[in-house]
Structure formats: C-alpha cells, structure tokens
Amino acid sequence: MPTYSQTYRASVDDPERFWLGAAAAIDWDSAPRRALDDSNAPFYRWFPDGQLNTCVNAVDRHVAAGRGDQAALIYDSAMTGVQRTYTYAELQERVARFAGVLVAQGVTRGDRVVIYLPMIPEAVVAMLACARIGAIHSVVFGGFAAKELAARITDAAPKLVITTSGGLEPGRTIEYLPIVASALEIAGTQGIAAVIVKNRPQIPGTAQDFAGHDIPWLDWDELTAAAEPADPVPVAATDPLYILYTSGTTGKPKGVVRDNGGHAVALEWSMRHIYDIGPGQVMWTASDVGWVVGHSYIVYGPLLVGATTVLYEGKPVGTPDAGAFWRVINDHGVQALFTAPTALRAIRKVDPESTELDKYDISTLDNLFVAGERLDPNTYDWISSVLHRPVIDHWWQTETGWPVCANPRGIEHLPIKPGSPSVPVPGYRLLVLDDQGVPAPTGEEGNIVLALPLPPGTLTTLWHDDDRYVRSYLSAYDGYYLTGDSGYIDAEGYVYVLGRSDDVINVAGHRLSTGGIEAVLAGHPAVAECAVIGVHDELKGQRPSGYVVLKAGADITPDELRGELVQKVRSEIGAVASLQEVTVVAALPKTRSGKILRKTMRQIVAGEEFSTPSTIEDPAVLETLAETIGRGRE
To answer: CATH code for 4-314+394-486?
Structure first.
C-alpha cells in the first residue's frame, strides 16, 4: 500500500492521472478521457467529457451487483422511538417511484427542487430522486424561518417545493406548513408547479389544509402510490447535482454549486481513504441533511461505496439522556462515527464521568471523526480517554464539500496531534500566506489558502453569480482560494486551524488568535465549553473577553474561576494576551450545526444592533446572553 506521502505527491505531481484513476471506481455511462478542463480558469471543470448518474452510483449499481438485500439506510428516531432499516433494493424502489412523482409534476433535467424536510427517510429519498432524473436539489434546513426559506426559493427558482407537516425537537414541535406558506407569500409562486407534503402523524397539518392557495398542495403518499417508477437519466459530469446555501456577509445567501462527476469521484475516494469505510460497513454521521456534512456523509458518501448509513433524528443529550450516541452505536453496529465537537462537549457537560457509556457495547466502533468547529485539546483528551478509540479531527467547509485536512485512516495511520486536523488531504495544495501573500515561516500564523485548481468535489461556482464567486473566494490572492481561516503549519507538515481570520485580534500590536485563548480556557477542569471574542479597547485597540459554560456539578465561584483562568492564560500564552474579563453564562449561542455565533456575540458586547441569525439553534440563548452582558455593563 502506498504511504500518505506517496499518495499526496502523486495527487499534486500528476493530478490528471491521479483523478482519472480515482474515477475508475465510479460507474459511467460515458467514461471520461480527461480529468481536468482548465480552459476557462478560474472556472475549472472536472471530467468534462464524462456522463453518469449519481443515483445509479449510490443505489442501483449495488442492487445490480447482487447486494440488494444489504442494509442501505437505517432510520433511528429518538423522537418517535421508530427504527426502520431499508435495504438497497427497497431504497431503489422508493427512489424510483418518487422520481416518477417528480416527472409527473413536470420536473426535468436541470430543474431545481427545494427540499425542506427534517431527518426523516423521505429527505434522502427526495434527494436521490432528484439526482435520478437530473434535477438539481436544494435542501434547506428544516425549521429555517420563512424569510430565509423565501430567499432560497427566490434564488433557486424551483419547479417544486417538498416539505412535511413538521419537525420534532425535545419538548416541542415545529410546524413547517405555515412557514412554507409564509415563504411563498414572500417569494411568490411563479414557476412553482406544486408543494408536495409528507404528513407526519405526530404533527397537525396536511396538504389539504392549504388547498385554496394559488398552487396545488399535494400529498406525498397519494402521489407515490399512483406513480410509475422513473428510469435514471444520464447527465454530464459537469452538470449541477445540488445547490446548498451558506450564509453570506451581505445577507444574501451564497448558493454553493456541486457538480455530479467530481462530487461522486471525490466522495467515493474519501470514504475509502479518509474514513476507511467500504461495502457493508456502517457509518453514522450525526449531523443533518440540511448541512453539507449531511449531504456528503449521511447521504451520498456512504451509499456511493455501498456502505450502510444511519439517519438519526435526535440530539446527543436529552433524547433521552447523554447516552444517546452510545445507544445508536450499540444498536446498529456503527464502525465510524462522525460528529461535531459541540456534541461531545454537550455530552461531557451532562455526563463528565461518562457513566452512561457503561450501559452500552460500542466494541464495533473503530474511529470517531470530528469536524465543524475546532476540536480543542481538552475535549480531545476527554473523549479519547472515554472511548479508547482514535479520535480523528478533520477540517473542511461547505464550499469544499469534503475534507481538506485529515488523518487518512484508509491510507496510513499517522500520529495524532491534539489540536491539529493533521495533514492536507491528497488533491489539496494548502499554504499559509501572510497579508502580503508571502508564505509564512514554519509555525507562524497566517491565512490558510488552497492553490487553484481545487480538486474534484469542491464548489464549481455560486448559483448564477460567477462574479460573487470570484469576489468572495479568489480575489484576495491571485491563484488561490481563500478559506477565510487562519492557522499555521508545523515542521512535520501538520496543519493547525486556529479559527476564522476575523477571529484574530490585535492587542497592542500583537496578533492573537481567540481560538488559542479558548484552548487554554477549555483546559480548566470546570469549563465545559467557552468562547473568546475581541472587544474594542481605547488603549490597546482590542482586548480578549471570555465566556464560559460550567460542567454539571462544577464547584467553583465565578470570581475564583475568573482568577484561575486569567492566571492560566498568562502562564500559557503570556501577559500580552491580557485576558481580564471572564463571564460565566448558562449557554453559548450556536447555529444548528454547532458553530458558536461569535460575530453576533461581538455585536452584543459592542452594544451594536444585531439580528437573530436564521441558523441559530435556540434564540432564547441569545436573549439571555444579551441580558447577562447588559447587567455586566451596569
């Protein structure tokens, strides 16, 4: 087997040969003879002469290979108590039939379909059905506010909207149909043929309740029962598979475009070489289909290699307890778990001694993969000691679609360094540049960039906005994609991602990463999680301000904790960090994907007007934080 170094060198020295070799793992209607078309740089196109169907590669080919009886999808709802396994043959039948529903509604190759669904099997079926007929899906996180849903409908201009009566959260339900109706009032219904509704018995509301609207509201089950299964449609490798919207600094969401061919090749390669998962093995990605992680590693990645994927509707804690993750591993024989550091910190906060773990058998688990936020060394140490398994931090973005840095478990088990997502993944040429575009010395912090062209599977542009794509990602440094993150590379080639570039603060002329300070605070035995932001200082320009959440049962006063944390930062980073402000809060405001809303926190601390982000998990946390900060000012 080639080593990581050999594999990486092959990918950057001869990418044409490397990626054509990787493409051989995909079933093509017309196999590509070229890997890269760079004739219209910076709009690179992978496998320009290839034709395929992503749904066929994710479902049909496994049935054709005689593995139709193997489990493809395990649905586990902690909210309803339902567990249901779908074989590849069953999934193929459901997808083909719903693809027939789409065709009957006039959806054709290149049309867009907006999918507004929670973590239910119909979300996976709808995505694959779109891929089957060459339509472009745009999944919007279930529960997003009407205004945000409307913005995505306006930009994508879909032929159909697919939704359900609602979503289930611990202690509450979210009714989707009024949100969809309100979004359509804002966006208008021009070009939309219908809204298709999957009824959930736990939540009131059906398609019939909206029968008087200016477009049909139709019942999923009735349509499916009458539909003829649709055959797959070959598409160009360069045709879009999906649009996934990510927040934009102007308030208008950015529609990241993913193609069919590059996406299939990259995800298939990543499953085997990064996650070390192949046919028949079980992977559970504890995310949501509304996020890129859910697209890549709940739906497409595992199915492309013929693995079994787990679709979990629930939380790491509270559904019903902090043993929820260990139960799912136990019940389904999970071999690879992928989650966010926030989930681990939530479990640790409620169950720091990991007593819930003792109730379950997790012997099948080989690796825990973590991404979404920086995995601080303290959390890494805790979960490693609890699981006695490799904990693989890795780093990537909505735009890249698959990991940029990782410890490639399917190639070589490299040493793990806490605080680092390890090394650049083959295909990515990663550098750290200073503000003038000069490569930073080893160990020195700078802006993390990726040399163009990006590898297959990454974004090809923004939906109908090439100018914004160039302006947002490619204009800072000629020939490079700007990740927006800062960090450094050590002497052994390991990458350290310290946080977003705008989370670097300037204290009396010294550039300090708030992520570095957070790592120190998180190392205190009483701290469950924390955030550090930069605030204005008349004398020093900026100063750090810390916000910490205590572990359950922590026995320490706020003043004692503040004193210990101030001293800890002084001793581990230096007096220049000048941390004096530490506030104990009940919770930190986060997005539904677990990212801390640091920008909004900075606005609150500065006394600026702020709006509640559409991606927030619990708006009440933001209100409580604002009250706490307001009392602090008084």
So the answer is: 3.40.50.12780
